Amino acid sequence: MGLPVAIIGSGNIGTDLMYKLERSEVLDLVALIGIDPESEGLKRARDRGFEAPANGIDWVKDNPDAVQIVFDATSAYVHVRHAKVLAELGITAVDLTPAARGPKVIAAVNLLEHLDAPNVNMVTCGGQATTPMVAAVSRVARVPYAEMVSAVSSKSAGPGTRQNIDEFTRTTARALEEIGGAEIGKAIIILNPAEPPINMRNTVFCALPEGTDHAAVIASIEAMVADVAAYVPGYRLKQPPLIEEGPFSTPGGVVPFRSVTLLEVEGAGDYLPTYAGNLDIMTAAAVRVGEAMAAHRASGTPTADQQEVTA
Amino acid sequence: MTTVTTSTDTGAATPAPVARDFRLIDSTLRDGSHAISHQYTVEQVVAIVKGLDAAGVQVIECAHGDGLGGSSFNYGFSKVDELLLVEAAVQATTDAQIACLLVPGIGTVDDLKRVRDLGVDVARIAVHCTEADITEQHIKAAKELGMEAVGFLMMSHMNTPAGLLAQAKLLQGFGADTVYIADSAGAMTTNEVRARVAEIVGGIDVPLGVHAHQNLSLAVANSIAAYEEGARNLDGTSAGLGAGAGNCPTEILAAVCEKNGIVSGVDVLKLMDVAEEVTRPLMDRQQVVDRAGLLLGYAGVYGSFLLHAQRAAERYGVSQADILLELGRRKVVGGQEDMIIDVAVELARKHAALEVTP
């Protein structure tokens, strides 16, 4: 028996997450909770033998002992209310909305830091995709300034993202600083309507001060790509990591070089189409976090071996 | 649509205030910033604002070329913080309003608040021509801040007249006071401009504007055609300074308007002086339709990619033209400057592979 969990929110993200949790060996999905019994997500949940209640957070209140983790794939606004209810019930929340009630977790970087937190936030799709690349550089060099550019297909950007795109840029920029280790972070997102839809693309620039060991930067980036690809199979370098010569007058000062990491994220195609790598990386990272929490609960502090197993 | 004629006699001396047939917005200090790699100084901004203001231009746009917050690795860092430039523009103007451009996804409402505090009156919220629904929070914020909100649809050649109308209606619904279509790639023929303007003007209640580029050498002609179809805002830049092969040159547009009996309300000779004596001396290169510029219009590629593609071509030893054509094939949109590096590196790798396999 694994750790019993539920998903709340039966839209694209929640439904995709259902397919990924179904494959987990350490998490047991009990319910996909929605508010519309006719929704595609709840229909699919019923078809796959999961409970599919349509009374929202009330189901969790009525069944407080049924699950230990709830993955929230609703909206920032709704999650604020859910967070309170879940905290009172002592149920851990893995928040896939931008509500940011709890500490930010980037699976490849600070997975083990918040395993006991009652509520963790999965930042943004762009944050999951690019923060590890900044962290990869900052573990071998000082990064006075880092910048990410995300391009996602228009079809994969839902109404929540569209109505509050500033939230994406602010939250992602902060993640590059707080978790990536950049002194100053900047985030840019572009929606591309091309047909057929483009895969998610991310470019990460890091300012490299005088004296940086460029070979170490490249090796660290390549190692980190492998770490992310362990839980997001479609995560890959589009070109080898580049070191470009400047000088560049960044907000963190003038630097002689920059690293440029050109990434692509192809989704696993569980529920969302493969072009929606931006949504896939969120659900995959959330599963990774849930599994680490489960391992932690099973044995106190997870060992490196257990991390290998859960990856 | 009707062709508007005017009874006003447009002599050399234009009395103020004037009844104008359209509003002229000059973007030398925003779109022009691309062409000088965002290296404007406060002194240059002051000189241009004073010249344009004295010539009777109503709105002067000032910001990083990619809008507020555009200073970045991806688009190029500003030499001088854009807030200092905007502040200088506000202080230098007497009659003209100062506008800023903001691209959601690059800048945020925070940037808008900062420039409003400096005295900026007009917020142009720019978005790819199919994605208008990401501008709601910014247009509403601009209105709440007491600014005129302009919804600005970029790369308008990539959407149909009916598609653009639907997007324009969204912008209007969010509260935009004016809607623009921008030919950001300078890719539209005059007939394509006419069809789009006619469709949109007939379907919205707010004024429409057109922002033209010179890549097919049609910027002035397209602007006049847009006016004839009912557009009542037109953009220009002094000496055509701008992305790609340049913008619609403000002084030429004003001259052609005058000869056509369209009252622009600006002093053509003064604008010529600004172009010749203030703008041209600060230009790194004259705005001409060379091969790369023409390729942008021909392939429908975002104009501000031009200089980035030139630098990537030099860095990786590949052809700028090949980079631009590949970007066109990939249907890259404005803001994806990082893909220029991607394409350049890929071309270089292909060339290297060809060299090692004889």
Structural overview:
The complex is a heterodimer of chains A (311) and B (358). Chain A is an alpha/beta fold and 311 residues long. Chain A is 40% helix and 24% strand. In chain A, strands 6, 7, 8, 9, 10 and 11 form a six-stranded mixed sheet that branches. In chain A, helix 6 packs across helix 10. The C terminus of chain A is likely disordered. Chain B is built from 14 helices and eight strands. The N terminus of chain B is likely disordered. Classes of the chains: A alpha/beta (311), B alpha/beta (358). At the A-B interface, strand 6, helix 7, helix 8, strand 7 and strand 8 of A face helix 5 and helix 14 of B.
What is the element layout, followed by pairings?
The complex is a heterodimer of chains A (311) and B (358).
Chain A: E1 3-8, H1 12-23, E2 27-33, H2 40-47, H3 57-62, E3 69-72, H4 76-89, E4 92-95, H5 107-110, E5 119-121, H6 125-138, E6 146-153, H7 159-163, H8 165-178, E7 185-192, E8 200-208, H9 214-229, E9 235-237, E10 242-250, E11 253-265, H10 277-299, H11 304-310
Parallel strand pairs in A: 1-2, 1-3, 3-4, 4-5, 6-7
Antiparallel strand pairs in A: 6-8, 8-11, 9-11, 10-11
Helix pairs in contact in A: 1-2, 1-10, 6-8, 6-9, 6-10
Chain B: E1 23-29, H1 31-35, H2 42-54, E2 59-62, H3 82-92, E3 97-102, H4 109-118, E4 122-128, H5 136-144, E5 148-154, H6 161-174, E6 178-182, H7 190-201, E7 208-211, H8 219-229, E8 233-236, H9 250-260, H10 268-282, H11 291-299, H12 305-316, H13 320-329, H14 338-356
Parallel strand pairs in B: 1-2, 1-8, 2-3, 3-4, 4-5, 5-6, 6-7, 7-8
Helix pairs in contact in B: 2-3, 2-10, 6-7, 7-8, 9-10, 11-13, 12-13, 12-14, 13-14
